Every structure is written in C-alpha cells, then in structure tokens.
C-alpha cells in the first residue's frame, strides 16, 4: 500500500472531478507568516511570471548551488577543558568557532566559564572564523579550553551569565517581558519531555491506569471560565535558592591605584548561610577582599579563594550554593532547549501571577544604562552591504540578527521617550512636536506636526501614516533589490501614544532636507524631483509591486518621471547607499473610503452605500487584495482570449467585434461562462487556455510568426482587463491617482483615465468578491472601538494615576457594577504646581483627572458611536451585560482582546464580572502596561522556496521527496533565523505530518513537540495556532499509545478554545470529535457522548443539518451507542447519516454503501438483543442465552476515525495507479489557473465540494488558522 493523500482546499473540492482543474489558491498559508500576506500561490511558473509574481526572485534562481553548500557533512572534535574529562562534540564545517563557545557555556559541566579561548596545537582560534577555514582542524582534532585574563567587559559578561544560570528556571523575565524570554506550559501537560519518556509511557495502554476525567470547567455546556488555569504553576518554578544576594558593590568603580593592581569591579554577596562577603573581580579572576559594607579595604582576604570563575569561588565558601547550583544546572539542561532559547522578538503575556520582587544586580544595571551592548552590530540598521558577496543565506542571517536587535532597542527607546527619560532634540517646542534621538535611533510622535497632514485628516492621518509606511518598508524589503535600501522602522504604541522609531541615514543630520532629497517630493507633490539612478532601481520593483511608471507635473509645470508615489523620497547617504523613505502610499487608495468630486463609482459600490467619508484620506488596499485582484483579472484574461480563439475556430466573429466596441470585462466574463455552460465544452476550453498560454508566450518573445488575428485576440483581452501592455497580461497601479495636490500632464490623460477605472474596479472587486467571504467578528469590533477610546483616555493620565485609570476603564468596559468610582492618587503625590514646564511634559490635555469621571454608560455610548463612525456597524447594546447577551460574547474573551490590543497586563486571578455590588477590578489588579510593537519580519526567501517546493511535491503525492525538501528548508530557516521562528514552526508541523503519514510515529511526536513549544514561545500560549498545534500533538501521542497525555493535551486545547473563542465556534466541533473519539477508545462512553453530541450540534449549526460533516458526526455518535449496546439510538443516528450520504452522494457511492452495511449490522445486533431479552422475559433464569458480542473499539479503528476527521487519508493503491494518479495531479497543476477556485461549480460538483472523507493532508498539515475546510 502506498500512503497518499488528495488535497482539499489546495487540491480543492474538485479533487476527483475529471473536468475541473485545481484552483489557483494554495494553502501555504496565513499560519506561516506572523500576520502578513498569504504567500504567492504555486501556479505554473510561466503564468506567474506573466504578471511578474516571480520576477523579484528571478535573479536568485540561478544560485541554487550556493544555497545547498550549507549542508556540509559534520565531523567530531574532542574538547579538553580544565577540571573535567575530555569529551567529544559533533560540529559542522560552516559553524563559527563562536558557536562552540555557546555550546560550552550551555553545557552542565562547563557552563560557569565565559572568558576562555579555544586553541588547536597552541594556536588561538578566531571566534568569527568558520570551522572549514581553519587549517588542520579535522575529524578527531583536540581543542583546548584555555582560561584568558578578564577585562571589565568580560567580567560584566561573566556576572550576567552567572545571574542567568541562577535564574534559568525562574519565569519572572518571561512574565515581565524582558530579554526575549517567553512562557511555555507544554511540559506541565506532558509531564516532561515526550521524546525521552515515550518508551516509559508505553504502558499507558493498560486501561485501568488512565484517569480520563476532564476538569469540570471544560465540559460541554459549562459556563465557568477560570483564568488561573491559563498559567498553571510549574513545579520547577520553586527555584532552589543558591544565594540570598548577589549585587554590585557600592565601592565601584575601583579607584585609580586599585585599577593599576588589576581590580575591575567589586561584588557584594550574602550566602544562604548568611555570610556577607565582598568580592573583587580582577584580571586574573575572582577573590575575596577585606571590604565591608561601610569600610573599604581592597586587599585580598586570607584565604582569598582566587578562582577563574565566580562559581568556583562561591562553591568554596558556601556548601548550600555548591549543592543547589549543581542541582539547578541538572534541571536546567533536562528542559527542552526550545523552552530556554530566546525568541527573535519579545512576546508579552497579558496575565501574570503575583511575584516577589527580588534584588537583581543585572536588571538594576540594565535599567540605568542607555547602551544596549548591541551597537557593535547595528551600524545603522540597514541591510549589511558588505555581506552582499557572502552567501545570501549568511547575509540574511546577519540581517535577521540586526533586525531583532534593532526592534528590541527601538522598543526600549520608545518607552523611554514616553516615560520622559529622553531629552528632545527640539526641547523648546510644544511636547507633541518634539523629536528625539537615542542610541542612534530617531523617534517621532504620531501627531500632525506643522500641518503636514492637513489635507489628509490631521492627527488621525498622522497616526495611521506610520503603519502604512511600515507596510511599504516590509514590501520593498521583500523584493530585495540590490542597491536599494530602506530604513530600519518600528512602530510602537505605548500608554496611548504612537512612536515611530527609524534608523538615521548617515550624514542626514548635517544637511537640510531640501538639499538631501534628490527623488520624490517633500511637500506632497508641489515640488517634485527625479533621478536616473533611483528610476533604474525602482523600475526593478515595479513589476513585483505592480507599480506603474508615470509622469507628474511639478510647480513649474515640467513633467517629472516617477516609479513610486510622490511622497516616496530618495536620499543618498554619506555611505553612498541609495535610501528610500516615506513609503506610506506604496499601495493604491481604497476608493470606497475616498469620495472624489465628480467621480462616479461602480454600481455595486453605490448599491452598498459607498463611497463613504472616512476620518482620514490614507485608506489603501492591502497587498493581498491587490494580488487577489490581479489574479482574478488574469483568469479573466485567459478566459476571454480562449473564448475568442474558440470562436475564431468556429468562424464566429461577433464576439471579437463586440469586444472591439469596448465591451466591459464583466460582459466578457458573462459570455465566457454562458458559452461554457451552453456547450459543456469545458475540455475544449482547457485546450483553448493552453493555446492562449502558448500564444501569449510567443507574442511576448516578439516572434514574427504570429498571425495578426491571434495578435488581435491577445490585444482585445489585454484591453478588456486593463493591462498596461497590449501584447501580454501586465496590470500595474499608479499610486498617485486621486492624490490631493498631484497633477498629471495632458499627454497622460488617457492613461490616467484607465488607471482611475482600474482603481474603481478594484474597489468593486473588494466589495463583491472578497468581503462576502469574511465573517464579521463582533468582539473584534467592540474591542477595536474600545481601544480607540482607550488610546485618547490614557493620554490624559499622568504616571502616578496609571493603574487606577486602567482599572477604572476596565470596570466601565466589562463590570456589571453600575457606578464604579475612580480612585485618584493620594493628594500628597499630585503636584499642585501647574508651571509651564510641567504642562509641557504632559503630552495630553492639562486636566490630568478628567479620566476619573468616565461612567459605563458614557463609555458604551462612545463604543457604539465609534463602531458606527469607523466601521459603519450598528451595535445593539448599552452595556457589557447586554453585549454579552445579544451577541453571545464572553467577558473574559473581551478582557483578553482589549489587554492584548492595548498592552495591559493584569493579575492572574478569578474575576467576578457579574457582581453588581462591587467593581471587578482594583488598581492592584493592573500589573503592567507593555508596548504594542509593529515591525518588519525579514524573510528567508531561499528557505521559503524549498518549503514551497516541498509542499508542491507532497501535494503531488511524492512524500519522500517532499520530506527531503522540507528538511532542507528547515536547515536553511535555522541558518537564517536561528532556532526560533514562526516559519520554522510551520516547517516542523508539516514534517511531523509527513512522518506520521509515512508511519514514523515517534519522529512525528518529536517534531510536533518542537512545533508546539515554538508556537507557545513565539506566538503566545493561547494563540489560535498554538491551540491547533496541541491538537496535532494529541493525535500523535494517541498513535504512540500515550493515551492519558493525548487526553491532557486535548483538554488543554479545549480550555484555551473556550477562553479565546467560547464554545460557539465551528472549530470546536473538530476538537470535540477528537476528544470524544479518544474517550471512546478508553471506554468512557458517557463522557465520550457528551463531546460527540456537542460536536454534532455545532456542525449542524455551522454547516447545515444536511452536510457531510454532520453525517460523519452522526456515524461517530452511533459507534459509541453501539459500544453501549443501545442499538435503537445507534440506528437512529446512523440512519440520519445514511440519508445525508444517499442524498448528497447517491446510492452507489462507497460512503453510502459503508453506511448501509453498518445499518444492517446494527439491525442484526438490535434483533439479537431483542431476542435475548424476550427469551429472558419468557423463561426467567432458565433462559438459554446466546452470548452477545459487545466489543470495545480497537485502537486501530479509533485511530482510523481520528485520521479521517483530522484530514489524513491512507489510500491503498497499486504502483500503476500511483503513477497514473501522479501524472493526473501534475496535469491539473499545470492548468490550475484556468478556473477560479469555487467559481460557479456545476451542481454535481457541490457534493464533491463537501466530501469530507477525502480530506486534505497539506492544508491540515499547514494549519490554515481556523478554516473549517482545513480539517475535514
């Protein structure tokens, strides 16, 4: 048997329909990128190139060789360190020496060393050298660890490292959101590492050892939503105390004469035994001196215990330290590495338990130093140019590192700016207008300074411009044109203010802006300049970004050529690089929210009440929408051309005539669809599409052999869809259309008209094609509106009133208590002096206590009017209780949403929202306010190509090849991103899925465990993706016979689902089916039924009682009733399922036949049971009873059902079938653009569309978040 799957959303409903090629949509997915666009679909490459989708990377295709070099084979070296036995270490040739340092600093027996060199045959190895470049280093070489003298820097690094080792099990850094620490709770539910303990848990198959009872609060129908369960207390968190105090001494820094004796700094330590000691860090190591808290005597004590490492010294003076430090390190190295590694960007937790505030010398020092320790490799945060010659992978790895460091620095700086800890560079101006420079990063506030955005909406426009700009930076970075540079850009929302942090162009501060800008406009298009080098560089981005080169008029009425919006400025830095900035109008405007005088909108927009006046004029279309629109147009182009070719064949010239007379594309589509349905010649149409493709390619290659009629066909199709070329499909937008203040030359009149029409079509496409596919999330609407109000509310609060103000806001927002009263800070803390300086510093209005007068009625009234004004949605509620009732919302979910959106962290405890006698929150419940950070995610495009090719192979059924490609991608991702990243998470998930399908259950478990840990750490412990990862892991645990662990994981997933979404969510049906099946397997029939019947109810609600999902649900319920010997109920459910199959799939379909067989079997069992019962009634205890067969379900049958509901299929096929199928899948993939996904399915396709027993492996494997189709 070959294991193979056929794809659902990817291979589409049409997986078995002979006429329908695969839709052009691909599930590579939203899960992969942290909130960015779904990726380019895997269409046939040629077609994709037609519109330049692939163009951006075209230059990279030839370089595959240099990418694959990364995978050199490893070798083993011996390491000899002082005081321990030599040991072997596996290394890889392209590792740096530095990475061996890292390994030694992490190993249990060498972790206390930081200041050492590695020597080979007496030669010191360069830290930044790659191992393959070191002469004489080979298999079996001996590397010596040699202790080196300390410097002040090395001594500080050492103390910091020891502090990190002492705190390695303490979660406080993760709760406080520092140093890229974040939380993970998986080990609480798996009782340790699954990998090692897999064998130990095999005995879980003995049923009686399993306690299957779920916690009460996760049972279907439970109304309780406890919060404390979100962050269960981990046993390891009660840290072993090694020292009472380790801190910097007040005698620092050493006086001049002691410096000349080699003193670097002084430490003060109190041991657990209560011994107070002063320690000198010197160039030779650490020793005890004779100072006390009040008396300075730096001479060595007797004995001084001079040791090269602080740990060796402390081991000698404190027996408790020695014992506990050693135990702590044992525990530390037993934890999964993914629980310990820092994440690339900080993840903040919205809840935290009450924690003791302990003394911490490193934290104290960090708080008061502005240096970051990272500046060495932040030359200006632009892409490292000197790395252009290195392998692209290494360049990207460096860029990723620089980027995450820059984001951390920018975030810290932005908080310092708002907290008032940074001096402005223009201190005499009004606070809102101030700008700041800190650590070579430029900070500005999101207010409209000097009426810059007057025509666009003032402060409101100034607030959204930075995020638009960031999206522009993100897009230009992704295209990655050599020689074109963007600024490091981070947007931080903190305490109600928006701060933009940008790296500084070298030399910009020494020049006037007017002199610096050599491309673009500094006054929104009045004066415009251009530059040939910028045009050349930007031209390379125009195809992938779909931006049209165009001309505008400047103030002297001269024509100026641009290849971007006018706001985009080009500045050459002192480093000779070409920088572009102000990319806020990279994407075309959304005309639905930009009424323009004298412009008529398309009919479908007007019907829905558009265009509507918005509070700012910077609304633009998202990149995903532009891509979807262009793809839609491409399909239209192909259909129109194919139709004309077919008509030419049949010598019908009417249609081409009609098209020449300017028929609209819509008529064209109607025509093509009509002719398809009339003639049923879909096969002809497919060959027609092939011809069009061939023709388009021939014309594009400028071959003189094409006859004029065929050229005419292509020209007509180009014109109908709005292509800027008349020989090939090429749609681009002019970003300056409808830009206030921008004027176009008379010569471009027609072009501008076409561009206006294209924008109107895109606006209509958004309303008619894209939006109907979206669901409105009421809780999202309420919390976003509340966030808008909270932002301005916070601006009026001074620091001392922050926790009181936030708790008051949350009470007004969520508590049932009718009149919460704000507690103003105690009088003696409020400054009475309203002097000028004071007023200047407060960024908000002068009245610092206005926030205290807010009432719940007023807040909810404002929320409703904000929802109406901003989202044009009418909310039918006057308070939180009504909102919860009318829209079936949970207050705990609203609390989570508003906390995440505003950065508020609250105390982990149970909140009573419905108490009408006292408010829900007190100011003690507000623990912190974090920044909400938006930044660019650099992309490892080489790795991503491998990943996409792997997915494609898997879809075609080449599992082994797919697996190899995905492994290759994983290696490259690791090389670029380090060990932690969302894309690595997606890679691991797919690998686990493939391992599972290919029968390697333990490898599947290991990879999925990594995926769960990474998702918890990088996305958050209750992120929708994390919940999904838990479900996958539970399946693999079940397959590995770890039943109780599987249940624990499913219960955790259900708890998180309840907290984040509540019970009324379509995805809950899948989760409950999983839980019900596992409980069925462990013979907990009544419990199992509670979950399965709930799943049935949810499926019926969301998919309709006649859907195939519901039929499957009926079957699962029937099986449990059969196991309970309640045959009447079993029959009833199976009959329901049978009826659905028969109506949807017809009597001869295998699902219908299977159901019919099962019905017969149930009927026989029911008859046998009835006969036995009659016998007992008739003859009493003398009855002659045949033994009835009550079988507990086999694990194999449960696993089979689990595979079906989770979208995994094993199809037995002969080798020949396999070859045929692969050929068929490939053929379809080549044609997959021809018919748009889901567009006008034939009636008989409808059934196939819902066919859930043929689910998609890759889509479930890739986990498109929360699309039901991704599972069934």
Automatic annotation (TrEMBL):
Q: Where is the composition biased (Polar residues)?
A: 654-670
Chain intervals for the UniProt region annotation (Disordered):
1-66, 195-219, 654-685, 1233-1272
Low complexity bias spans = 1-15
What molecular function does GO assign, one term? mRNA binding
Q: Is RNA-binding there in the keyword field? A: yes
Subcellular location(s) per record: Cytoplasm; Cytoplasmic granule
Enumerate composition-biased segments (Basic and acidic residues). 40-56, 671-684, 1236-1254
Single GO BP term? mitochondrion organization
Q: Write the record's keywords in alphabetical order, separated by commas.
A: Cytoplasm, Repeat, RNA-binding, TPR repeat
Residue stretches spanning the membrane: none
Q: What would be one Gene Ontology cellular-component term for the protein?
A: cytoplasm
Domain named Clu: residues? 306-594
Question: Which domain of life does the UniProt lineage start with?
Answer: Eukaryota
Matches recorded under Pfam families: CLU, CLU_N, eIF3_p135, TPR_12
Family matches, as PROSITE patterns? CLU
Instruction: State the function annotated in the UniProt record.
Output: mRNA-binding protein involved in proper cytoplasmic distribution of mitochondria. Specifically binds mRNAs of nuclear-encoded mitochondrial proteins in the cytoplasm and regulates transport or translation of these transcripts close to mitochondria, playing a role in mitochondrial biogenesis.
Which family does the record assign?
Belongs to the CLU family.
Q: What is this protein called?
A: Clustered mitochondria protein homolog
* Naturally occurring in which organism (per UniProt): Cairina moschata
Organism classification: Eukaryota, Metazoa, Chordata, Craniata, Vertebrata
